[in-house]
Amino acid sequence: MPRAIPTTSMLMAASATALIAFSAPARAQTEVNPSTIVSNYADIALAGYSDSLTAAEALETAVAGFLAAPSQEGLDAAKSAWLAARVPYQQTEAYRFGNPIVDDWEGRVNAWPLDEGLIDYVDPSYGMESDENTLYTANVIANPSIEINGETVDASEITPEFLSSTLQEAGDIEANVATGYHAIEFLLWGQDLNGTGPGAGNRPWTDYDTSNCTNGHCDRRAQYLASAATLLVSDLKEMVADWQANGAARKALTDAEPKAGLAAMLTGMGSLSYGEMAGQRMKVGLLLHDPEEEHDCFSDNTHQSHYFDAVGIRNVYLGSYRRLDGGKVEGASLSQLVAAKDPALDKEMREKLDASVARMQDIRDRVAAGEAYDQLIGEGNEAGNATVQAAIDALIDLIASLDLGNIELEGSDSLDNPDAVFK
Asked: Residue 148 forms beta bridges with which residues?
């Protein structure tokens, strides 16, 4: 029988032995106990969100340069900056589920999927209306006023404040994603109309060229893109502040019992692995063979986002994070705490985490060979489907035998009740 991943009670029981093993002054090592583990966890959060902010600021600069003098080269540079910005951010996602402050904020920067017709023009194949969303094709870029819940709203100026306070989740509909990485992704790439065939979105750079405008409203499209980039930077600054000394997210952890901090870490690791990644982001798309269900669907960057999510989960357990500048943040970890009590269990955990990252690397290798993620989940692609399923299985294996006690993980119909996905 496989051994259980450490529960909160198991970790707490391990702490006394860990203290004996790691706190002797002669060893000059960081004391390993729940408090120091939680403190290092917060330090890694600060580093990850700080790197995400740095990358978002580079994206904002690239967007500004492109909009000042639109060209294919400028659009490509903005796309490259967006892709680079995903690397540190995805590694922070393991902080979402165990930390309410992060979870409440996360929708502003990484909500998906989105009904892109809210933002801009769409292909006729997208459809003209939705029973679930009256703003399905509102196209705010083309319309200086829109109707939300029966009221006419002034959209003449597309500002960061307008996007965040009026358009985001307009009408209380989650699919009305107006801000964050995926709104920017759509504005840079446009729709991916290739289905499960090769190719990503292919928005022309002239969509932003006011002197040679394609698809109309280039000035307002530029307003939207600039505002979304500025807002992303602002939102990330807020999260960086939340993890500083005396920041709200850090204090919520350090002011609570250390046991609660360990529970937050396990909740984040488990929920991201199971319900969010294995379920919502991967299994749903595989069951339906639907490219609309892939995470970075406009840019075909899903393989990278999945990989760095898995790396981020491993970072939490190992208490270690490699920064963008090559530096490393590391300290007291869950791994050390478990190893002090049960070395075999720690070895098993590290092997499972490495396996999950390796299976994500298998996906990246197939993409590098010329087969995008949406092709891998396509109907009839048995080898591609199997590669994705192997990654799902590795994520599930992380928590398959986990006895969490009173810790509740994020679930997913695609794993818990697959028939519901087809209804």
From this structure: 151
